[in-house]
Every structure is written in C-alpha cells, then in structure tokens.
Amino acid sequence: MNHHPLAVLFAGKRLLRSESPLPGHVFNELVRLQLLKAIPCLQAKGSHYLCGRCGNEDLSLFGSHPCARCKATTCTYCRNCIQLGKMSSCQFLYEWQGELPPFPFVKKSLHWQGQLSSGQKRAADAVVEAVKMPKEVLIWAVCGAGKTEIMFHGLEEAFKRGFRVLLATPRTDVVKELYPRLQKSFPHIIITALYGGSKDRHSFAQLIVATTHQAMRFYEAFDVVIVDEVDAFPFSYDKSLQFAVEHAKKQTASTIYLSATPSTVLRKTPNLEVVKIPKRFHGHPLPVPQLTWIGNWQKQVKKNTLPRKLLIWFETMISSKKTVLLFVPSVSYLSTISSLLKANSIPHKTVHANDPNRHEAVASFRKQLFPVMVTTTILERGVTFPNVQVAVLGAENDVFTESALVQIAGRVGRSATHASGDVVFFHYGTTIAMKSARRHILQMNEEGRGL
C-alpha cells in the first residue's frame, strides 16, 4: 500500500492544529478521512489534568483563563510546555493514522575515514549490538573520548536496517555543533536539526538531531534513540523531558545514553549495559585540576580588583599565546569581571545562555581572534576549542557541582596536538564537589593507565 503524500508532515508526530503547515480545508479533509486522529491535549484525571505532550501532572504548572476559542470562562492549559504552543483543554493533538512512509535501507552510509581507539572500538561495538538487539546501553566516556565517533558505526547499522534515529541533547549549542559533523559523515542520509527557532520543522528526516525539548513533538517515531549528555541540565532535572524521550521511541526501540558523568541512579538501572571508556581517544591522561585559594574574591571584585593569583595566571597564559575560558558562577558577575579585565588591558568577550550573539562569539573564540572568554556554565560541555586553558572563579559556588567541574576540566587537552593544559579552580574554600571532581578525574586516569 502506498503512503499518502502528506504523511511525511505528520508521521511519528503529535501536533497541534496550529503547527500544521496545511490550509484549513486540507487539514479538515484529512480529519474527515480519519487519516488524522484527534487526541485531547489535556486529560482529566480525577481532580487534576495530564498534559498529553509533556506528561505534566503538577497542578501548579497548569493555568486557566477565559478562552476566545471555546468561550469558556475557565479554559485550562499547561504552562510547562507552553513554549512549544499552548496545550489547552479545548484543543487536540493530531496523530497520523495512515500508512507510514518507509526509509531506505542504505548499505554504506558512513563516509568517515578516521580510526577508533581500542576503547572507542569496544564502545562502538556495544552500540552496534544495541541497535541490532534492540536494548539499552550507557556509554560512560571521559570528556574528549570521542563520543560522536563512537556513534558512527551504530548509526550506519541503523541506516542499513531502514531505521529512524533521534539524537537528543539538552542544549542548542550541541545540536548546532553536531549537525554539520553528522552531515559530513553521512552525506546521503536526510538529517534535520531541531531546536528553538530552527526553520526545518517539517522535513521528514531519517536522522533528527534535536534538543530534548523538541522530542515532545514526536510519538512512537524512532527505532533508535541516542541521549547525549544524559546527566546535563535541563534533561536530568526535568521529568517532562525524560517523558518526551520515552514517548518518542517506538514500542520496540534501542536506547543509547552518552555521558562523562552519569548519575549513580542511571548507572544502577536494571538491565542497562554499561561500557566505560576512561581514556581519551589520543591516549593522554585528563588534565587534573589545581585548587587555588584566593580569599574573599567577591569582596575584592566589589572593590574593583581582580584576585592577584588569577591576574598573574591570566598574564602567564596570554604571554604564552594561549586562549582561556574563565567560568563564573552566574550572569550577574559577567559585566563586573569584564570591566576588570578591560582595566587590565586583557582582550575578551562574555557569553551566557540568553546572549543573542553567543554563537558568533564562540565561533570567533574558536578561531582564536581574542584570548579570553568569560562564560557561565553554558559552555561547560559540548564545545571544543583548540589549546584552551580553563579557570573557574568562585569554584566553591553551588552551581559548580562535581559533574559541572568534571565537564569544565574536560574542555582542556582535547586534541592530540594540545593534549595537556591548565585547569585551575580559584576558590574561597574547598567544597566536596571540588574534591570529588578532582578524585573522579584521577580515578579515570588510573583506570586509563591500565588499558
């Protein structure tokens, strides 16, 4: 049976009427022909509601207001996923009921000529087996182990079988970095990148690289789901994102989790195979953080002074023609630190999550057009810079968890030509997180030496 030509717009998705690109009369005809099934956006469950898109059941995350659509004085809607379009009690999600368009079986899709290290090969084989079985596997790999390349043979296996794949990651920056790499490695596979503001929302791609928020639009669509940086905010903290990824899978599907810092809960999941790679692809050990006390740095900054040890470190790095990532605890420190760097004639830029020029600044820093980038934790993961050195100012702050500090340290020494470098946690008192991060890195290096 041939699939309907409009199936590509809806297959594997649950969409609001407002998300359809079709004219109203065409959409209504698909509903009349029962090719689109209407599902209530919100389901009443006793005294509360369940959101059909994000799984929200928290009463505090629902709102109500007089509705122009249904004329009700109190129409309820979900506030949790409203950024993807309003899910209200008078509206429906629409799911395709017709024949599904097939994907081709591509025997040789991978056009990557690189070589895997022994650790990468072991993990890559586990991913291939997970695709074949299907089953769940966690690839626990140190920062800089080459997790993307580990996926390549598993993706090739999926495309051989005509499978559809979702690669979900918590952050837009990572989607934008992975997308061109995957296009280059799989030039004959249709690939789409989905994130807030992306334009290609309606293409029917075999491989979708998306933020975990975008997974909410899919339902039983994917044979293989890869969750990158499974420990990262917001995915690790937001049950609705975990709900979305689960619902995006077909009833029988492979799941591959990638992380340098998986939680204990994930590592101990029943029936989850865990493959550990404690060594980077180039074989060199992870740079070990140095913990440097600088006293009450906040007081010094308020007096328009950079901590002396930090300033000396900066001068040493810049005189050695090295680039520096300086992490600060929050956006509120960026302008002050920027002013102090400027006063000390240190060329730099600042970035944070809501900075409209963030991607341009990151691209310029990668080209080494300026020596210092001051950033929040937005750049703690998913980005690679050549020959970069890292400092954390105020490493004692709660935002710098063990996981965050391990990831931050993992920005250094990622290339074979610059396999070592400086990682310094400048602090006003050591924390358990700082000590644990250092111990974590030393432990991985110890395990890596045995391979």
Could you tell me the radius of gyration in angstroms? 24 Å
Tally of separate domains: 3
Please state how the strands of the largest beta sheet are arranged side by side: 10-11-9-12-13-8-14
Count of separate DSSP helical elements:
13
Protein name: ComF operon protein A
GO molecular function: 3'-5' DNA helicase activity; ATP binding; DNA binding; hydrolase activity
Organism: Halalkalibacter wakoensis JCM 9140
Pfam families: Helicase_C (PF00271), ResIII (PF04851)
Task: Explain what the structure shows.
This protein has 13 helices and 20 strands. With 451 residues, the chain is an alpha/beta fold. The chain has three domains: 7-96, no CATH class; 118-277, 3-Layer(aba) Sandwich (Rossmann fold), CATH 3.40.50; 290-449, P-loop containing nucleotide triphosphate hydrolases (Rossmann fold), CATH 3.40.50.300. It is globular and about 70 Å long. The termini are far apart. 44% of the residues are buried. The model has no long low-confidence stretch (mean pLDDT 94). Residues 128-280 form the Helicase ATP-binding domain. Pfam families: Helicase_C, ResIII. InterPro entries: Helicase/UvrB_N, Helicase_ATP-bd, Helicase_C-like, P-loop_NTPase.
Write the layout of secondary structure elements.
Elements: H1 7-10, E1 14-16, H2 24-32, E2 36-40, E3 42-45, E4 48-51, E5 62-65, E6 75-78, E7 92-96, H3 118-132, E8 136-141, H4 147-160, E9 165-169, H5 172-185, E10 191-194, E11 207-211, E12 222-227, H6 239-248, E13 249-259, H7 264-267, E14 273-277, E15 290-293, H8 297-302, H9 308-319, E16 323-327, H10 334-343, E17 348-351, H11 358-366, E18 372-375, E19 388-393, H12 402-409, E20 423-427, H13 432-449
Parallel strand pairs: 8-13, 8-14, 9-11, 9-12, 10-11, 12-13, 15-20, 16-18, 16-19, 17-18, 19-20
Antiparallel strand pairs: 1-7, 2-7, 3-4, 5-6
